[in-house]
Amino acid sequence: MRALHSLRGDDPIFESLRSDYPRFDQWLTKVSREGREAWVIESPGGRCAGICIWKSDDDEFRFGGKVMKLSTFKVAEEHRGRRYGELLLKTVFTELRANRYDHVWLTVFERHTALITMLEDFGFERHDIETPLGELVMVKHLVPTGGETTDHFAYHCRFGPPAVDLTLDASVYVIPIQPRYHTRLFPDHPDEPARLLPDDDPFGNALRKAYLSQSAITPLARGDTILFYRSDDWQAVSAVGVVEDSMRSDDPSEIAAFAGQRTVYSYTEIAEMTRPSALAILFRQDRLIERGWPLDDLLAADVLNAAPQSITQVRSEDGIAWLTRRLAASS
Q1: CA 68 to CA 59: how far, in whole Å?
Q2: pLDDT digits (tens, 9 = 90+) for 1-34
Q3: Strand order in the sheet with 236-249
Q4: So what's the pLDDT on residue 162?
Q5: DSSP state of 188
Q6: To 10 degrees, the CA torsion angle through 16, 21, 22, 23?
Q7: Cα–Cα distance measured from residue 242 to residue 295, given in angstroms and rounded to the nearest whole number
Q8: pLDDT at site 194
Q9: C-alpha dihedral sign at 316, 321, 322, 327
């Protein structure tokens, strides 16, 4: 978090904003004097690689309840491809969750198609009003009222992260993950040593990730809930995800293309894993579990029968009920 007055007004990231908004400089000066803050991703040279300026209480369109406005949301052109947009959204969602917001909204010109596509992919909807400048108003509603959808993946995208409802038609699996891969896939876990996310691999910044396994299990279904169990040192469930898609193949090129930039594995590692075949799981990060759910608790709750050695489905009704309570407590 950075105070706006500490940023340089001539930073190149602001140039296109001046083109879109003729009075941008006056507005930036005003909100800086008000003490407004921003989430900033800094490049090694000290410039802004990404920025989100927000306001904690702005219900201009009367959505009701507690409302956040994203006044500025931008990633510098030269830093595209590092998943910085998702990193900023991850920070926004963390703030929304911690302070129990009901809605979040922003305005965007329709020509910014990549931004609109990303926002819609994370549950933002087009409101039925345009601004006097011709901008779209996009809003994300964060509180389900009940019965909106029976599709668990759609539910997660619309109301989360975090948003998991184990009463919807989806299965639950525990996935063991080695510490070295956990550190790379979930670098911002609160129990990990402090790391500078933007300088690491893009999948660490992202909310949309991939995991590869040699498990012989049938490919998981869209909307299934997955619990990542960090083996060896923690022996605890440390992260929750929702499956977007999965596939099995013995062709490393096919697996690599399917996973894209989402996976922690190199092509060499993928080639080794596809002997005889690998399961690739695309998923959305729902939440990180601080201090984790330890193995002893998972055994006592009948979530697991033993420390997982491979992907394991949770079949016990008592185990599902226990997970439902723990998820509710961590929301």
Answers
A1: 8
A2: 888 889 888 889 999 899 889 899 999 999 999 9
A3: 208-213, 278-294, 236-249, 225-230, 172-177, 312-313
A4: 96
A5: T
A6: -120
A7: 21
A8: 56
A9: positive
Contact between 65 and 103 under an 8 Å Cβ cutoff? The reply is yes
Q: pLDDT value at position 196?
A: 47
Report how far apart, in Å, the C-alpha atoms of 75 and of each of 160, 187, 244 are.
Answer: 22, 21, 25
Neighbours of 288 (CB within 10 A): 20
User: Would you state the structure tokens that stand for residue 331, as one six-digit string?
Assistant: 């929301």
Amino acid at 201: D
Q: What is the pLDDT of residues 263-292, one digit of tens each?
A: 888 899 999 999 999 999 999 999 999 999
Instruction: Say if pTM beats, i.e. exceeds, 0.90.
Output: yes
**DSSP labels for 13-69?**
GGHHHHHH-TTHHHHHHHHHHTT-EEEEEEPTTSSEEEEEEEESS--TT---SSEEE
CA distance 82 to 80: 6
pLDDT of residue 121: 97
Instruction: Name the stretches of the chain with pLDDT < 70.
Output: 194-201
Q: Collapsing DSSP states into helix, strand and coil, what is residue 288?
A: strand
Whole-angstrom distance, CA of residue 49 vs CA of residue 88: 11
> Nearest CA to 282 among 213, 219, 211, 187?
211
Looking at residue 220, the DSSP 8-state letter turns out to be P
